[in-house]
Structures are given as C-alpha cells and as structure tokens.
UniProtKB/TrEMBL annotation:
It catalyses: mycothiol S-conjugate + H2O = an N-acetyl-L-cysteine-S-conjugate + 1D-myo-inositol 2-amino-2-deoxy-alpha-D-glucopyranoside. A mycothiol (MSH, N-acetylcysteinyl-glucosaminyl-inositol) S-conjugate amidase, it recycles conjugated MSH to the N-acetyl cysteine conjugate (AcCys S-conjugate, a mercapturic acid) and the MSH precursor. Involved in MSH-dependent detoxification of a number of alkylating agents and antibiotics. It comes from Actinomadura fibrosa. The gene is mca. It is an enzyme of class 3 (hydrolase). It comes from the Bacteria. This is Mycothiol S-conjugate amidase. The keyword Transport does not apply. Its EC number is 3.5.1.115.
Length: 285
C-alpha cells in the first residue's frame, strides 16, 4: 500500500517500484488522500479556462489513466486539498482542508483501508512530507497512525477487523546521493544537467535526513513510471524537468528507487534490495 497526498504523487515517487512488484504478481493499492483540487496547473498546454473550471474532475480522470498504466488499484480517502500557502507570513489554510482535520478523523478512513486491503508493506513520506506541503506532512501523520493503530482492536473499533502491516517505509526519491550521481552522469555524457540548483540547495540544507536503507532495482520499469507521470497532464509538462535526463543515463547511473525502513515487525538485514525482505520468509505473498 502506497499512501499519497495528491493524484500525481504516486507517479513521481515509487512508481517504478510499484510497477516492478505488479509485474511480480504482488497486489498493490495506491491510497490518495485528497483530490488535488487546489493544485496549480503546471503544464502550459493544459492551462485553459475549461480545465481550471473542472480541475477536480480532470485530476480524477488523470489518476484513472495513471493507475491503469501502473497496473495498481487505487482508493480515494475523500479529503479536500489544502493548497500550498505562500507568502511571509503564509496565509491560513482553507477551512475544512485535509491538513486541518483532527488526526483521528483524517486517519480513520486509512485505517479502514488498511484493514480491508491487508497490506504487508506500507509506503509514505517522512515527517517533513518529502517537501513541506501541508498535505504531505498530514499524509505522513495519518500513515504512521494507521500503521500503528490498524492492528489494535481497541483503536478505531468501527473501522473493520484488525490487521497489522509488517513494514513501513519512507520515500527517499530525491536523496542527495542520487541527485549527485545523476548530475555527474549527465556531465559525463556531455549533456546539460538540470540539477545545478538542487546541488546548491543541498549545500544550504540544514534539516536532518533519513538514511537510505533499501534500494529496489526497478530500472526496467522507468518507462512505465514516465508514462504514468505523463497521464497527469495538468501537473507534468512533457517538455519539462522530469524528462531531461535520458532513460539510458538514469538506468546506468541510478537503477533503483530508494527508501528508509521506518518501522519493521520482522527481522531483516540492512541494507535491503526488496521491500518484502524478512516478510517472504514468514508469509506467502
């Protein structure tokens, strides 16, 4: 189960991993916390009045195409996008949005989803949300709450029969090590790197980062990842940043998607190359 804040997040974080496990016969469920109703239109070709007027429906249709490409099931939690407040000081979040929900209210539908789907592994963001979007931070909170509560019959008693997931991971998609490797590979290939500004931001970065514990080989599924990304046409410019680095450069320089093992109820040896390490020895997937 991969828990994400908005439609398109599942295609930019962990998509090749999911496609790999789907190809291996694993059932994969994407849980999308909000509808992305307050997201900006980031593709100039889609920045049209009729798109803006029905952005929630458009993003729902984009998600349907992306989940078909990835081969995953998908479930909406039904909360409203909080938007990304900008300014100094930033404006208050809109009333009723996902990030302002009480934790138990926001977590209950995810606990229900965990108990119904019964995942062995959950994926989510770290406590900073990967980046500090209010919905990403809240996605982290509800994911940790659901992981810890879903197996306890005394918590959320009306949300189905208890089920305890065995491992919880944080996405480490944009680690400094990966960005440095891709930057070097682009320069080696004689191509202009898109990561100059990223490297400067890393120099100024002060917050602690989680160690990468798990690298999942999935280079054969990078093309599927990119097709899923492109399905989110309001959010992804086909001529933009995501597609500057050729696939062959990516496969050579960094053929994995990376994670931090945040919780585990099974024995496993680090580093790992499989999200199900320690689980395969105990259960039939």
């Amino acid at each position: 189960m991969a828990v994400h804040a908005h439609p398109d997040d599942e295609s930019s974080k962990g998509a090749a991993t999911m496609a790999r496990y789907v190809a291996d016969g694993v059932e994969v469920l994407v849980v999308t916390c909000t509808g992305g109703e307050r997201g900006d239109i980031l593709n100039p070709a889609m920045d049209r009045p009729e798109i803006k007027a029905d952005i929630g429906k458009v993003r729902e249709e984009e998600m349907a195409r992306a989940r078909e490409i990835l081969g995953v099931d998908q479930r909406w939690l039904g909360f409203v996008d909080s938007g990304f407040p900008e300014g100094d000081p930033p404006p208050p979040l809109p009333e009723g949005c996902f990030a302002l929900q009480p934790l138990e209210v926001a977590s209950e539908p995810l606990v229900r989803a965990v108990r119904e789907f019964r995942p062995h592994v959950m994926l989510t963001y770290d406590e900073n949300g990967g980046y500090p979007h209010p919905d990403h931070v809240m996605c982290h909170k509800v994911s940790v709450e659901a992981f810890e509560a879903a197996g306890d019959p005394e918590r959320y008693p009306g949300a189905g029969e208890p089920w305890q997931p065995l491992k919880l991971y944080y996405h480490m998609t944009f680690s400094k090590e990966r960005i440095v490797a891709l930057h070097a590979a682009m320069e080696k290939a004689g191509l202009e790197s898109p990561y100059e500004d990223w490297l400067k931001r890393f120099e100024d970065e002060t917050r602690p980062t989680w160690a990468v514990t798990t690298r999942v080989p999935c280079a054969d599924h990078f093309e599927t990842r990119d097709r899923a990304l492109l399905a989110h046409a309001t959010q992804i410019d086909p001529d933009g940043f995501w597609f500057v680095v050729p696939l062959e450069v990516q496969r050579e320089a960094w053929p994995t998607e990376d994670y931090h093992l945040a919780r585990s109820l099974v024995d496993t040896e680090l580093p790992e190359d499989d999200l199900f390490a320690g689980i395969r020895e105990k259960v039939s997937l």
